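Need a sequence for this fold. Nothing fancy.
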């Protein structure tokens, strides 16, 4: 197993030039294009793509190639994410991930894996470990530009004010001595108690996983720890969004962001107050006990909190270790007449929707 050291590259910013950080696109090309349109991204701007361009979506290979083409005409910088590195681990062998991992990964994701998309385009099978030697040889020849593009990406971008990394790091000195894989795949980084002199910007862990009350996909900007988490759950979450953090030349100017989720919108025709004491059921905290099955919703008890709430049946997951669900909430969004709401799901009871990055329910009339 490889224990490659982290590659650190300088981060050079130009005063007066807009710089945006995005992370965890996961092959969602429509959301990426929608976000760039919303930013009015131009050749005068800089875009830093902080890893996980591919995997978990059928548009992975297309998204990678789109960014490769965009870099020819625009100022783009890149960091390698663990899902991007997964492709390199498979092709180059001897990496962090063994063949039995790839067998499970490819079997679970199917066409949502970039590796399967590459195999399909190259016309080679990828049904099990016996197919891997031929696939690897074919990929090296057929996808040399894409692979070289990924191989050239550093793991950390650094200057006097900022430290950019896909997953997270335990310190800000001696960074080239860190293990690259641990910098890319660093789960729940904000919960590890680190703080930094520089501003550290990371992706990898969807920000909604950090809150147990309200499902919010907006970046978390922590003034005390100097950690900014920007993964909006694009592709991974049903209600996910793609965030672009505006990185100022001088941090004293303050941070801002733009988000895009692509959901259709409606206008609220009635006021609605926010509910108190909501619960945000999210990955890693989603064990349920089904109390009563219904046609559209099922009454369930959330094991961790003990709360009973109704869960959309399409969100329920039944596995060998019990019942879990997609991220779910009982939060009633505050709404005013005339406000726009982004609709995640339309149900017989009301709308599961988003406002300002927050997911909740709206039960009033709308148009």
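Here you go.
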């Amino acid at each position: 197993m490889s224990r490659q050291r982290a590659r650190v590259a300088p981060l050079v910013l130009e005063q007066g030039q807009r710089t945006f950080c995005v992370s965890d696109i996961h092959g969602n090309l429509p959301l990426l294009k929608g976000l760039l349109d919303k930013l009015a991204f131009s050749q005068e701007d800089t875009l830093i793509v902080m890893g996980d361009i591919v995997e978990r979506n059928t548009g992975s290979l297309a998204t990678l190639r789109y960014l490769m083409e965009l870099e020819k005409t625009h100022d783009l910088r890149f960091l390698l994410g663990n899902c991007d590195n997964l492709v390199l681990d498979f092709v180059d062998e001897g990496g962090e991930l063994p063949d039995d991992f790839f067998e499970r990964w490819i079997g679970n994701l199917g066409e949502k894996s970039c590796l399967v998309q590459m195999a399909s385009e190259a016309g080679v099978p990828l049904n099990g470990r016996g197919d891997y030697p031929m696939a690897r040889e074919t990929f090296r020849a057929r996808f040399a530009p894409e692979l070289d593009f990924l191989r050239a990406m550093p793991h950390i971008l650094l200057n006097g004010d900022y430290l950019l990394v896909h997953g997270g790091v335990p310190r800000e000195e001696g960074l080239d001595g860190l293990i690259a894989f641990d910098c890319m795949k660093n789960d729940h980084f904000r919960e590890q108690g680190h703080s930094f002199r520089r501003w550290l910007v990371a992706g990898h862990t969807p920000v909604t996983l950090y809150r147990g009350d309200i499902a919010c996909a907006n970046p978390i900007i922590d003034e005390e720890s100097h950690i900014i988490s920007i993964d909006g759950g694009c592709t991974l979450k049903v209600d996910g969004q793609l965030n672009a953090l505006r990185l100022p030349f001088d941090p004293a100017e303050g941070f801002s962001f733009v988000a895009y989720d692509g959901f259709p919108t409606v206008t609220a025709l009635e006021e609605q107050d926010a509910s108190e004491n909501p619960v945000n059921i999210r990955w890693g905290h989603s064990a349920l006990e089904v109390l009563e099955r219904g046609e559209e919703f099922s009454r369930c008890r959330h094991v961790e909190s003990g709360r009973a709430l109704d869960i959309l049946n399409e969100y329920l997951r039944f596995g060998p270790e019990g019942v879990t669900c997609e991220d779910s909430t009982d939060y009633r969004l505050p709404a005013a007449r005339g406000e726009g709401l982004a609709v995640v799901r339309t149900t017989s009871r009301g709308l599961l929707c988003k406002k300002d990055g927050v997911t909740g329910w709206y039960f009033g009339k709308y148009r």
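For context: The mean pLDDT is 97.
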